């Protein structure tokens, strides 16, 4: 009697190559989907942050006779800080409780090693490395208003940017806006973080979006391909858009507290109509 031997054999080279090819194809299909899902989740979290900051602004206004925070006022520093300029994030921090909402999850800016304690209004924030991804809107440059249109933003800042030592500043009230639900008060602006002190909680510089800062918003074509790609008059038209953006735009907060994702061309439309507290009847192109 002959003994029966089991006949085993491994995968052939061709079979292995086919399996590897199938895995590679699936990876090529799925990895971009996973990346898009991750980016969408960060975008949604960022939108939630924007809304929460908007809510904190409304709570602050409720205690301050309906007025927004002053734009870079001179206030004595605390906790060992040395900077006499108060940023909006410090003004509304009692209504926020969680400083992490000031950072968009997609904003991966790194802390500059040279940043020192004297840059901070509140010295206790030095070394915490808390990124600020959102700016309170001040007077931006428009066609209608010229340099620093005082009809834009949450207050008036006519001092020398960013050092308002002459205290020529004022705060706008919510009731001073024609259409709060159509007026921007806060925007997502990541800023360069490695070479400047512009984007860290507790220090003031970069906390206000004003003048020609519109050049920082991603989405504009550079060199300009259409009129809307040009910066406003009186602003140098030699700057490429800033870095850091979501796939389809930036998050913005309106005067009524709601937040929305908008692209550059939407906020640029009709001479920055969405930024204006008193809505103009004049139509501007772009």
Describe this structure in words.
- The chain is an alpha+beta fold and 286 residues long.
- It is built from three helices and seven strands.
- The strands form two sheets. The chain has a five-stranded mixed beta sheet with strand order 5-1-4-6-7.
- Helix 1 packs across helix 2.
- The termini are far apart.
- The model is unreliable at 160-165 (pLDDT under 50).
Count of alpha and pi helical runs: 3
Shape: globular
Please list the strands of the largest sheet in the order they lie side by side: 5-1-4-6-7
How many strands, which pairing sense, and closed or not: the largest β-sheet?
Answer: 5 strands, mixed
Instruction: Report helical residue fraction.
Output: 10-25%
Mean pLDDT: 86
CA radius of gyration: 25 Å
List the helices and strands and how they pair.
Blueprint: H1 13-63, H2 88-96, E1 134-140, E2 155-157, E3 169-171, E4 184-188, E5 208-211, E6 250-254, E7 259-262, H3 264-272
Parallel strand pairs: 1-5
Antiparallel strand pairs: 1-4, 2-3, 4-6, 6-7
Helix pairs in contact: 1-2
Summarize the structure.
The chain has 286 residues and is of the alpha+beta class.
What keywords describe this structure?
two-stranded antiparallel ribbon; 3 helices; 286 residues; 7 strands; alpha+beta
